[in-house]
Amino acid sequence: MALPAPSGAGNQVSTPPLPLSPSPSSARARIDMPRIAALAVRAGSMVEQIRGRLLAPEARKVAPIYSTAQLAALCGVDKAHVAYRITKEDLPSGRLTPAGGKRNFELSELRTWTRTYRADKMRPDGKKAFTIAVGNFKGGVAKTTTAMVLAQGLSLRGHRVLAIDTDPQGSLTTLHGLLPEAEISEDMTIAPLCDGSQSDIRYAIRSTYWDGLDLVAAAPFLFSAEFALPARQMQEPNARFWDVLNAGLESVRDLYDVIIIDTPPSLSYVTINALWAANGIVVPVPPSGLDFASSAQFWSLLADLGANLDAQGGDMAGKAFDFLHVLLSRVDPSDPATPAVRQWIQATYGEYTLPVEIPKTSVTSNKAAEFATVYDVQKYEGAAKTYKRASDAYDAFVDLVEQSVVSSWADKAQVQ
């Protein structure tokens, strides 16, 4: 799908003009706040127009329709078994295509099937939602895409998922088809939790275009949380600034199976809250030298911070995670540095490294340009092998994380 053409080409889009620049002969103008504000309006207008083109006519995302083969694969049965089960009339039967040769299923129907056939992997009675933070202190590592795909993939497999965007850039919110600057209000974010005006996150939860996946959104004004949290700590000496999000989630841990938190690419007060609310961590790391070095800083800072907070919290057990997964993301086999850095990552992280790599393909880059992921694809226009390579990798990643979640539920049952 073509993006709107830049000015001067066909299919022009209109953008608000920037303040006039001085002529080449005059002194260079300083970039003051009015000019930056005008640039912000221009950029916001362009994003809104692009989204309108990509998500036309309603400018809202719509979940795909699924074939019998896709449903059967997720349920672990063959198409003949699906046809037989439909005759029992106890599960959604989908709809036959106009020609009558194929049967398609809505996402909500597919999830009814997967919850039935994958009952052994669903959250056991009496267990709490498992919370996963997707983090890395460096941007451009596919962190948000990883969080979105994990949320979509787990919901496809029958789990009820809550996605929480804690990054003021609002990229996860954008992937849900919402414009952070224009469509997100404060009561749709964690900001009231951070400033103390709310103590229960239920006020912020909204349903999305994807059945089984709810969202707590983010927007640029969420930067205020970085000031609100330390201010509360100063005003309330007994406050635990790192535990605000964790406490706010307590009331919904019986309502969801998995909670996915996308974090900012920095060690901020909000990132700390996301990590301390989590039972498990997923860290995407592309096999490049800079990304590998940045990931090393992540662990060092996290360890130092964790020791400090454990001492402040007075909890003898200290913060601990049920699992830690390092995911090789944006892997480009044609990059000559990839094999060496892959070895560094595997040697460093050992058993923490997931046995799957997410390839850097035209599928993932094209879908990102369309505010979408590989799971949003209804029909891929490119090479089938390219799409299958990407979708198979993401499927394997989701399956591995699900195994860790299910194992954690089982381990907790044995302890009790």
UniProtKB/TrEMBL annotation:
Domain AAA, residue spans: 131-294
Stored Pfam families: AAA_31
InterPro entries in alphabetical order: AAA_dom (IPR025669), DNA_Partitioning_ATPase (IPR050678), P-loop_NTPase (IPR027417)
Region (Disordered): 1-27
Domain of life: Bacteria
Protein name stated in the entry: Cobyrinic acid a,c-diamide synthase
Annotated source species: Variovorax gossypii
